[in-house]
Amino acid sequence: MALMYLAAAWAPKASVHLQAATVDHGLRSGSAEEAECVAQVASELSLPHAVLTWRGWDGSGNLQEAAREARRRLLSEWAKQEKLSAVLLGHTLDDQAETFLLRLGRGSGVDGLAAMAVLSETDEVHWLRPLLKVSRAELRDWLQARGIVWNEDPYNDDDTFARVRLRKAAGVLAELGLGPERLSATAAAMARARTALLARARDQARSLAEVSHGVLHFDCAGLSALEEETRLRLVAHGLQWTSNAPYRPRLRSLEAVLSKALDGHSSTLHGCLLCRHNDRLYIAREYAAVADHVVAAGDVWDERWHIALEGQDALIAPLGEAGLHVLETRPEDLPRAALLTLPSLWAQEELIAVPALAWGLSAQIYTMPDKTSFLASLIPH
Question: Which of 15, 150, 230, 377 has CA 20 to 30 A from 257's CA?
């Protein structure tokens, strides 16, 4: 509520067109009415307002995490639909400190402990957090001084959630020197460290990483010679980049799989295959992850490849065993398992093209994984 009032006062001075949105998670009675109350306030501030509803909770897993992911997705879709250049979020100094402690409790490393950024970009949307240096108490005081009322989420008092228990322990933590300001400063230091580590990884990737036919691979000797942090970081980003996953794999799983792969034993993780071939460590799509993925030529396949074939109807699907059998020759620089996952063009179950290998009918590749995009993934967004 404070963010909406502050933004409404700022927008005309900055010549900014402003809209508001409320996510109704539908998790408790009264949530729809609360969303309508926000809509009424937005109307009084002359702001267009949308209620974004989510009914995706199936009762299993982490409720807060599922709600957070749904909220981000709904807001992202709304922003792109409305052609908004950025979305303002109301995260506060306290949110920053609580997130740091929760991640510390889960054993997160530098990346997980890095502070939420004032500006970040995901899903082609810019996210702005203008209140990160303002405490929750300061915002409440600001609202009360102006006679502005707000709805308090009853989940904020539910001890079932670790974040709520942390809030209730805030006084004790502050006495120990672990107040929001100190924790936020530490999170900021971690963010600086993360930037430096990513820069180191990017520098090493320039000489150690290559992308052949859309498949990422590293020089095994060079990778093994790196300090462990950079080696793990490069491979983790390689897995994310190949699978288009939003998060890194868990550290223990990554360490175990990478060790096996460097010893010559193929392994799968994060929807990817890691295998050693010709003294290179390949990170390819796991065949099981894309085996049933079929789209029309011209659409985007596996969220990374955009291939079109003019003048003929065709489908894009992985090469697979059937397609591999058709190829007269196979490139020696790709392991067999990686070849199976290459996007291929099919017409009535007949293989007609493998664009990444320049085999068959001539097709237009508009986007294809390359080294430039991998290096870009090692830049904080």
Answer: 377
Neighbours of 99 (CB within 10 A): 21
Instruction: Count CB-CB contacts under 10 A for residue 47.
Output: 19
Q: pLDDT by residue (tens digit) across 313-322?
A: 899 999 999 9
How far are the Cα atoms of 242, 266, 275, 317 from residue 321, in angstroms, in the given order? 21, 18, 18, 12
Dump pLDDT digits (tens) for 55-73. 877 777 777 788 888 999 9
Asked if 2-185 and 208-285+373-377 have one fold, the answer is no
| Closest-CA residue to 231 (of 249, 218, 245) | 218
Q: Where do the domains of the chain lie?
A: 2-185, 208-285+373-377, 287-369
According to DSSP, the β-strands at 280-285 and 272-277 are antiparallel
What gap in Å lies between CA 201 and CA 283, rounded to an integer?
Answer: 17
Residues 245 and 356: their CA atoms lie apart, in Å, by 22
What is the CATH architecture of 2-185?
Answer: 3-Layer(aba) Sandwich (3.40)
Q: Binning pLDDT at 50, 70 and 90, where does residue 376 land? A: very high
